[in-house]
Design brief:
- This protein is an alpha/beta fold and about 230 residues long.
- It has one domain: Rossmann fold (3-Layer(aba) Sandwich).
- It contains nine helices and eight strands.
- The chain has an eight-stranded mixed β-sheet, with helices on both faces.
- Strand 3, helix 5 and strand 4 form a beta-alpha-beta unit.
- The longest helix is centred in the middle third of the chain and has 13 residues.
- About 35% of the residues are buried.
- The chain binds S-adenosylmethionine.
- S-adenosylmethionine binds next to helix 8.
Length: about 230
């Protein structure tokens, strides 16, 4: 392992805004912060927005700067990338930002029912050969639904037209989810994207744009009447 990576891993241990549960803490059991992120990590009950596969956390940080009255959590498995996001959040004194190192496959161990208001999935690996590994495949969407608030929203930004089309189709086939927006090329004819937040360029987005790829955006709602009843009752 490179010296730089080792140094980052060492520094990660001292970042109070980075949570790195061990495998034993989440495998077939609830992580101690499940259902308690608001109270224990952010010290408030503001809505929590989750970025999955956040890499260096560009979206988590940009969203947090725009919405100081909300909490943002970036999740990824790669510690050296999370180091960048966590460090920037500390340098910018962003108390509404935290990062968590973990596998999205075990996400049900991390969040309780109705704990998260919104999810961003930014440039996930498109997994052309392994549908079940795609972060928008039905088994993943079912896992997310279990911890999303009623009428939560999921955003997918990707350079993969295949993943965009696939996700759109998956959502259209479900009765509990609805497409809200589907933009096949956010920079069409050099225009500025329709929403300011779509202008944020992650590390991977810059790389894909340099290759001349179109960047797509999909936004869909998740109806969650079970949680709604629970919350209302
Ligand atoms: C292509 S990169 C995109 C990173 C960042 N969102 C960006 O746009 O620059 C995909 C990211 O997802 C993370 N990732 C992929 N599969 C994952 C999984 N199952 N659990 C957690 N992180 C995962 C990778 O570590 C990587 O940082």
């Amino acid at each position: 392992m490179g010296k730089d990576k080792l140094r980052r891993f060492e520094e990660n241990k001292n970042f109070h805004n980075l949570y790195q549960p061990s495998f034993d803490e989440i495998f077939h059991r609830d992580y101690e912060l499940k259902g308690r992120w608001g109270e224990h990590v952010f010290g408030n009950n503001h809505p929590i927005v989750l970025e999955l596969g956040c890499g260096k956390g560009e979206y988590t940080l940009a969203l947090a700067a725009l919405h100081e009255d909300m909490n943002f959590l970036g999740m990824d498995i790669k510690g050296a990338r999370l180091w960048r996001g966590a460090r920037t959040a500390l340098e910018e004194h962003r108390s509404n930002v935290a990062f968590v190192r973990g596998r999205i496959e075990f996400i049900e161990s991390f969040f309780g029912p109705g704990e998260v208001s919104e999810i961003w999935i930014t440039f996930p690996d498109p997994q052309p050969k392994r549908e079940n590994k795609r972060l928008t495949a039905p088994p993943f969407l079912n896992k997310y639904k279990a911890f999303l608030k009623p009428e939560a929203v999921i955003h997918l930004k990707t350079d993969s037209r295949e993943l965009f089309d696939y996700t759109k189709e998956v959502v259209q086939q479900r009765e509990d989810m609805r497409i809200l927006e589907a933009i096949p090329d956010i920079y069409r004819s050099g225009e500025v994207p329709a929403h300011e937040i779509l202008s944020v360029r992650t590390y991977y987005e810059s790389h894909f744009l340099a290759q001349g790829k179109a960047i797509t955006y999909l936004k869909f709602a998740v109806d969650n009447p079970a949680i709604q009843t629970e919350a209302a009752g």
